[in-house]
Amino acid sequence: MALILSGRDAAVSFKNKIKAKVQKRIDDGKNAPHLAAILVGDNPASSAYVRGKVRDCKEVGFKSTLIHLKDDVREEELIQNIQRLNSNTEIDGYIVQLPLPDGINEKEILLSIDPMKDVDGFHPENLGRMALGLETFIPATPYGILLLLEYYGIETTGKNAVVVGRSHIVGSPMSILLSSNIEFGNATVTLAHSRTKNLKELTKNADILIAAVGKHFFIDKNFIKDGAVVIDVGINRVSGKLHGDVDFDSVKNIVSAISPVPGGVGLMTRVGLLMNTLQASDGRD
Ligand code: NAP
């Protein structure tokens, strides 16, 4: 039976470390890290994600502020809120929960975020710094995946890794990080997407497979090499249940390790955000 890469267990361990660092800040007379979140509208998934992030903050001793705007908010008004957060010295970092309603230009919104407070790591300056191996905020999901690999001591150096999905928030940064000369990097990486012609051929050769497609059970045993490590990023709601991009039951006896959905990468994404917020507050001392 495969090793289950439990985001739940790993998250508890990393959160305990974060909690201790927050306590040390307080003992040293510094402020608790302060994360703000802008939520636009009432998309149930987005509301649930933001509520989870606020709960996490409480758990590790961060302050949090939630700014909830109506879904018909004008772009200028949203940007004014962002500018207020940029100049608010009490806020260490903040996120604008995506997706945003139609009519709001997501790129303009990202560009108006102060890169020093961009704890989601989506600003082009931060993505560029990540690509160059400079200190930055790593996007929370790939960061969480690196932490999961670290927690379970999964060797990546010299391995063949295939990332399926090239979004700016998951697949693309994940492929850059896995191929970088960093701990839990140094893999030989293939980045696949919807125009990839020989997907199964590529994934059958993957020692590490990261699925970030957004299609439930897209990856089954026919895509998997014996003994592969599989990281399932997908969160797909089907008939009220959450499913990953990987058909867990079909691959569980072939893989050596796999992250479950739920209870895998989602929880680690939240840890990635906490780590970035802690880093932001340390950077502002
Ligand atoms: P996205 O922006 O929709 O990107 C999906 C990617 O999959 C695209 O690059 C697309 O290729 C590729 N793709 C689609 N069909 C394909 C096919 N038949 N063969 C190969 N590639 C294909 O999605 P995302 O934001 O990266 O999210 C992916 C999944 O992860 C979703 O289920 C999302 O809910 C989940 N997610 C989870 C977390 C977490 O914390 N666990 C965080 C973020 C996202 P093209 O570029 O060619 O269209």
What are the defining features of this structure?
single chain, 285 residues, Rossmann fold, 2 domains, six-stranded parallel beta sheet, 10 helices, binds NADP nicotinamide-adenine-dinucleotide phosphate
Description:
The protein is of the alpha/beta class. It has two domains: 30-114, 3-Layer(aba) Sandwich (Rossmann fold), CATH 3.40.50.10860; 140-266, NAD(P)-binding Rossmann-like Domain (Rossmann fold, 3-Layer(aba) Sandwich), CATH 3.40.50.720. Helices cover 40% and strands 16% of the residues. The protein has helices at 7-27, 44-60, 75-87, 106-111, 124-131, 140-151, 171-179, 199-203, 248-251, 265-283, and strands at 3-4, 34-40, 63-69, 93-96, 160-164, 188-192, 208-211, 229-232, 236-238, 241-243, 257-258. The strands form three sheets. Strands 1-11-8-7-5-6 form a six-stranded parallel sheet. Strands 3-2-4 form a three-stranded parallel sheet, with helices on both faces. It has a two-stranded antiparallel ribbon with strand order 9-10. The longest helix is centred in the first third of the chain and has 21 residues, at 7-27. The model has no long low-confidence stretch (mean pLDDT 97). NADP nicotinamide-adenine-dinucleotide phosphate binds next to helix 10.
